[in-house]
Amino acid sequence: MDGYIVLGSAVVGILVGLTGAGGGALMTPMLILLFSIKPSTAISSDLVAALVMRPVGAAVHLGRRTVNLRLVAWMSAGSVPAAFAGSYVLHLFGATRTAEHNVQVALGAALLAGAAALGARRLLDRRTGQRRLAAVGEVRIRPLATMAIGVLGGLVVGVTSVGAGSLMIVLLMFAYPVLGANQLVGTDLTQAIPLTAAAALGAVLFGHVAVPVTTSIIVGSVPAVLVGSLLSSRVPDQYLRPVITLVILASGLKYVGLGVHQLGLALVSMVAVLVGVLIARSRKRVISPAHQRELQPAQTA
After folding, report:
1. Which pTM was predicted?
2. Is the dihedral of CA 86, 249, 150, 182 positive or negative?
3. What is the rounded average pLDDT of the residues 81-88?
4. Does 287 lie in the same domain as 248?
5. 45-49, 89-93, 281-285: which has the highest mean pLDDT?
């Protein structure tokens, strides 16, 4: 085992449990960028490790009743066969430098598209006044749309390990706008179990898995994802969704070629803006309606 990979996986595990994003959004970039592991090996090793990690987070959300099992069933019907097919496509890419670069570009494009969609969804919600307050059992299921999300996400997760925790949760936010982020994270983590199992089986059969890397990821991430899932099942929606968007955006920027120093500056700037916005919103909520009426005459004068 590599102690540094264990430590990095622990940090990533907390974010996986908190945001639902895991493979391409967090773990795979860490393995490639910090530990110089080939993309195909990093993707496959992460998929196998996720087969142990994701059930831990799903169990927490099942206990908190933030999982819609009907959504899980319809998504899995599409994602499981598609994920296995995606693993075979990754095998066909080969291990050449050009092929590895193409995989990285695909990761970055997928993540940036997901981050942009999350931002667009947030703007639409603010304009329409859409609130995500429905209980998981009150949602009307759209079978064909849900299965299509599963097929698309399964194919992409098999090829890049992006999908179960990033692209698919974005698509779910559009398909089911009344569900809160913690409910979407819980549902997505649960459906990721059969999806990841199919993709991991393909990874094992087609020979991309590095056992020491996989073991290090499991040791570091499993206890950490438990902590992150406990947080995500309780954190309010308005705080959780910006964190999800930030995590996905940062990973995407790195894959499209942003340098380490530029990415660091971008991250610091984004975190500063996010913290400022959250503080401003919190202060605005603290002012009671009675206090606002007291301030109104003074503001008018």
Report:
1. 0.70
2. positive
3. 80
4. no
5. 45-49
